[in-house]
Amino acid sequence: MNEENRELDKLRQSLDLVDRRLQKMAADMERSHIADYVNLLNRPFSLLWRNLLAGTARGVGIAIGFTFFAATILYVLRILGALNLPIIGDYIADIVRIVQIQLEGKAY
């Protein structure tokens, strides 16, 4: 009888451990929104629309970022060109002139 109780206690402990792990897995799955993801996969047009919007937003962000970066580089090059450094100044002045001509829409 005593040994049966021990085995029952071991079995209860094992089942409690399994129950805790299952509850943790269920909570993790709920946190990961797996149901929303599966629902999204079942509606391909919604998935396409979201990806189209995300791609457009990335493209606009890249364009704005590159414009800001290029403007900053041109600003720094103009400052360096104004310093009249012997070789670098002429090279930078040529680059700035080429960019300004391209921005004005004239042929180089």
Order of helices and strands: HHHH
Count of extended strands? 0
Which class do the helix and strand fractions yield?
mainly alpha
The chain-level mean pLDDT equals 86
> What's the number of helices?
4
Overall radius of gyration:
33 Å
Q: Low-confidence runs (pLDDT<50, min 5 residues)?
A: none
Largest sheet data = none
* Beta-strand share of residues: under 5%
Shape: elongated
How far the N terminus sits from the C terminus, by CA atoms, comes to 100 Å
Fold and architecture overview:
- Pfam families: DUF5665.
- Residues 1-28 form a coiled coil.
- α3 crosses α4.
- The longest helix is centred in the middle third of the chain and has 39 residues, at 44-82.
- With 108 residues, the protein is mainly alpha-helical.
- It is 89% helix and 0% strand.
Indicate the topology:
Elements: H1 2-31, H2 34-41, H3 44-82, H4 86-104
Helix pairs in contact: 3-4
Search tags:
single chain, 108 residues, mainly alpha, 4 helices, elongated, membrane, transmembrane, transmembrane helix
Short description:
This protein has 108 residues and is mostly helical. It contains 4 helices and no strands.
